[in-house]
Amino acid sequence: MNKRSLLLIVLLAIVFLGVGYAVISNITLAVQGNATIAVDDSNFSVKFDEASSFTYDKTGAPTNTIVKLNRSSDTLVSFSISNLSQAGDVVLITYPIKNVSETLDAELETPVVNFTNSEYFTVTATLSSSDLIKQTGTANLNVRVEVISTPIDDNVTTSGSISIIAKPKNWLKRIKIWYNKI
Question: Is the N or the C terminus of the chain less surrounded, counting Cβ atoms within 10 Å?
Fold first, then answer.
């Protein structure tokens, strides 16, 4: 074998070793997986606070009017008003609503009022400021009970309910949507 053939064989061996080394050293690593967030109702909690209050919205309201506020559970409160006497007598009741959630906002729907005897009473319910309660924040449900007609013959009563639906809202998702719009 001559020198030229030997040199060609050595050069070819170096080229093939280099290519072979490169092919062997290129390895693709991959990671696959998934993650799931489980819905947990305990992450969302909205309740009536214990600090309910009432006032009369009329100068000279009857001194014998009795207002009783009761908190049966975190989500059920009630009131009882007795001895209202004439048209124009008004009792205003404030129920603080607290969002106990640490990671979710609470969106409150418009209160639905369903009371009987609209000939003698007007019962309304409104939310203070916004319908959105941020995490650990508070809003007020303001209930107004007004006598609109003075009874003549017998005592008159109204009864009914007010319901509010609180929906969980993810504040981080809202920020992301807002950010993507700008």
Answer: C
